[in-house]
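Subject: mismatched residue count in predicted assembly?

I count 488 residues in my input, but I want to confirm that the predicted structure covers every chain. Input:
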Amino acid sequence: MSSVESSSARATGTYPVKRGLAEMLKGGVIMDVVNSEQAKIAEDAGACAVMALERVPADIRRDGGVARMSDPDMIDAIKASVSIPVMAKVRIGHFVEAQILEALGVDFIDESEVLTPADEAHHIDKFKFTVPFVCGATNLGEALRRISEGACMIRSKGEAGTGNIVEAVRHLRSIIGDMRKITQADSAELFDWAKKLQAPLPLVQEIAETGWLPVPMFCAGGIATPADAALAMQLGAEAVFVGSGIFKSDEPAPRAKAIVEATTHFRDAHILAKVSRGLGTPMTGIGMDEINQRYADRGW
Amino acid sequence: MLVGVLALQGAFAAHQRALAECGVLTRQVRVSADLDGIDALVMPGGESTTMSHLLTTSGLFDPLAERIRDGLAVFGTCAGMILLAREVLDGRPDQRSLAAIDITVRRNGYGRQVDSFEADITIDSLAAPFHAVFIRAPKVERIGPAVQVIAAHDDVPVFAREGRVFVASFHPELTPDPRLHSLFLQEV
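Triage response: the counts match. Full output below for your records.
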């Protein structure tokens, strides 16, 4: 087919290859879906990926019990119904669930506090996997510990299943605020930062130099409107995850489209005003004082 | 020189970094007014179905197609290559492409993320091989007579041009090596 010189060696599952997919998802919306119909609605609306799970966080919160990795049949059905990347969740520390998802060929694994933790001290050693991982964080120390375990993407945790953006804002401001301070610190102060954050010194030194995490940082937990998505982006998130916010609203399809447009045009208030019209009722949402289990506290 | 970078979704920031290293100014392009005054455009990797959808909703598709017809220099990587291809296989039925280069590409032709890979490729005009990262990459399955293949991997074209339209199925913006961006800018 071609007359130019052609090599054939290749390496899979390397850090640049895993981190590369996170880079490709920037500026996009990753939507939680529980079946093929929802996955198609998400893809039609312009989602850059879907997260396949059995119950959205709002239902996990309502039903209680132990939340686990989804049924492989359900994940296969969603993979077959869309052409965009498919992510799926495993319990914190449950490396066998992760082995299973990798065998199923999912594109990204979320080691997620929304599911019931399997290990109360250890997260998964994510370097052992070909598939990339995303992990949640409430502060910079947690983000850097996850990166030191091999996470290729960080998402601020927020409080999943609440439709309330306040926790996501708190986490984004905490992570980004500390990064700003570190860029102002002198080299001797970085040792103290590493100690305070309980994070590896080389990663702290890297932030001092670059001003940002070595992997992309997205926002999750509590996004229910186009304005919420744009708020997360203006605060510095590089993309958004929307869980219950779409399929727990009155009209998921137009809301999904509107959130996609709001994430792209996040600084253009005229476009945000236009896409915020006529979306029906958003998910009801709950206040932080009304919940008894904070998922964001899970993770060590 | 002002180079636009399509910023609807995807790895546009990484392209801006690479272009800045080549010493040119960049501008993020999200709506048609952003096309005014740019000398070239880079279309990044990301999700092609998302970008196709947003090209339509933002009203950018037709003005961009016109600028390309009028000779705007364009470099599309991965999803950007899909958006520039004449024919797209395994796309969504409503997926639109700008048909600016006479090739047929298959979306995710190299497989899912677990099959994504990195490899060295050889480019005649460059002294040392270029290290290329392929992420859920599109595979070129046909090239038209006017298309010049600049590099191939495993006998499949991975970097090609037709006139002022350049496409790569991999991501030169993901490696700290701006040689391909320079090569494109020389042609602008």
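Strands of chain A lie at 6-7, 11-12, 29-33, 49-52, 86-91, 108-112, 133-137, 153-156, 217-219, 240-242. Marking this ticket as 'not a bug'.
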